[in-house]
């Protein structure tokens, strides 16, 4: 999940908690004290969901970076170098280069 996706979702949820669905409790002139308190608590909880979504995005992003760094380090550690030719092998290659090569078509 991309970080900006979770950040955007968190911002939208914090701005409009009703996006999660209808909140419990009532508002308005006829709402009782208990209903208004329930509504206020539901709004606080819904707003907190936004920060949780943001934190999840940050943790996922950090985990992805850590995984990628581990893979890169493992690749470097497991890489095998190309061995250098010994002095005798280099001399053999030089002597082969010095010999005139036959026509490539005659080898076919």
Report the principal-axis shape.
Answer: rod-shaped
What is the count of distinct domains?
Answer: 1
* End-to-end separation: 57 Å
**Main sheet record:** none
Instruction: Give the integer mean of the pLDDT values.
Output: 80
H/E series, N to C? HHH
Number of helices: 3
Uncertain residue segments: none
User: Which structural class should the secondary elements be placed in?
Assistant: mainly alpha
The Rg value, from CA coordinates, equals: 34 Å
- Tell me the fraction of residues in β-strands, as a range: under 5%
Pfam family, one: Bep_C_terminal
Organism: Palleronia aestuarii
Protein name: Bartonella effector protein BID domain-containing protein
InterPro entries: Bep_BID (IPR041533)
Structure description:
With 108 residues, this protein is mostly helical. The chain has one domain (3-81). The chain is 66% helix and 0% strand. It is built from three helices and no strands. It has helices at 3-15, 33-78, 87-98. Helix 1 packs antiparallel against helix 2 (33-78). The longest helix has 46 residues, at 33-78. The mean pLDDT is 80.
Topology summary:
Layout (H helix, E strand, L loop, with lengths): L2 H13 L17 H46 L8 H12 L10
Briefly summarize what is shown.
This protein has 108 residues and is mainly α.
